[in-house]
Specification:
The structure holds two protein chains of two kinds. Chain A is α/β, with parallel strands linked by helices. Chain A is 37% helix and 25% strand. In chain A, strands 1-2-3-4-5 form a five-stranded mixed β-sheet, covered by helices on one side. In chain A, helix 1 runs parallel beside helix 2. The mean pLDDT of chain A is 93. Chain B is α+β, with helices and mostly antiparallel strands. Chain B contains four helices and five strands, in the order βααββααββ. In chain B, helix 2 packs antiparallel against helix 4. The interface between A and B is medium-sized, with 21 and 24 residues.
């Protein structure tokens, strides 16, 4: 299990800001994620929803989870809601354990996420 | 085995653990739980025990007896009352850190810690009996 630096690909699809993550979500990755943009000022173009795609993520530790909590909590100031998909069931359990799922809605797939957000 | 006191080194331990868990037929779910708890114990040892000192190593001892995994993680710190920290919960200091102990506490069957005065080492021991799968 080699260390895998986080890479981020951003995309806007149907007025939803999507961050596609690949690599480990750790302390260093958390710093990259938090510096990706000034989250407290909101999403690009004032979008209201961010989805995080964890398909390329194999390892998340507590420091990475802490960074994700910060990112989604900044949504209060930035006026955006957050969700995610392609999350391994183990990390779904950890997110629930630390209460992250209260701020980051976990969807079973990208399609389910897009469909649900459009209906809301 | 021994690892350096820097983040990312815990994955060397996870590699060794992964081989042992696969050989023993441990279920994926229990294997993930064990690896998360061990990673968090190593991260605490690296950060809080050895304070990232390049001269100090974190020592990890892994034992398996039938379906039970026992892991000891030793560092050169003086330790702390970890169960009290778990009870108190992560403090809202703005960075939302401190979830590792909670994960160890919830994912493992048993865990304990002790300061070994004659060796000047702090030891966290975690134990889990796993299901085969």
């Amino acid at each position: 299990m080699e260390n895998s630096e986080l890479s981020i690909r951003e995309e806007i699809k149907s007025d939803i800001y999507i961050l596609r993550l690949s690599g480990d979500v750790t302390k260093e990755a958390g710093d990259i994620l938090l510096q990706w943009r000034d989250w407290s000022t909101g999403l690009p173009g004032g979008l209201a929803y961010i989805l995080v795609d964890f398909a390329g993520v194999k390892y998340i530790n507590s420091a990475g989870i802490a960074a994700l909590i910060r990112l989604v909590r900044m949504g209060v100031n930035g006026k955006y809601s957050a969700g995610c998909f392609n999350l391994h069931y183990h990390y779904e359990k950890l997110f629930s354990m630390v209460g992250l799922n209260k701020y980051l809605h976990i969807y079973p797939s990208e399609w389910a996420a897009m469909d649900q957000i459009k209906q809301d | 085995m021994e690892i350096e006191s820097k983040f990312g080194e815990e994955k060397k331990v996870l590699d060794q653990l992964d081989c042992m868990l696969k050989e023993s037929g441990c279920s994926d779910a229990d294997g993930m739980d064990i690896k998360t708890a061990v990673a968090e114990a190593c991260l605490n040892a690296i950060e809080h025990g050895n304070r990232f000192s390049p001269e100090l190593r974190v020592m990890v001892r892994i034992r398996r007896i039938e379906n039970t995994i026992q892991v000891k993680v030793l560092d050169h710190g003086k330790g702390a009352e970890l169960k009290a920290i778990v009870q108190k919960g992560p403090q809202d200091t703005g960075n939302f850190r401190g979830w590792g102990l909670k994960m160890i506490n919830e994912l493992m069957d048993n865990w304990s810690y002790s300061y070994i005065a004659d060796k000047d080492l702090f030891c966290v021991e975690i134990i889990k009996t796993f299901n085969k799968g």
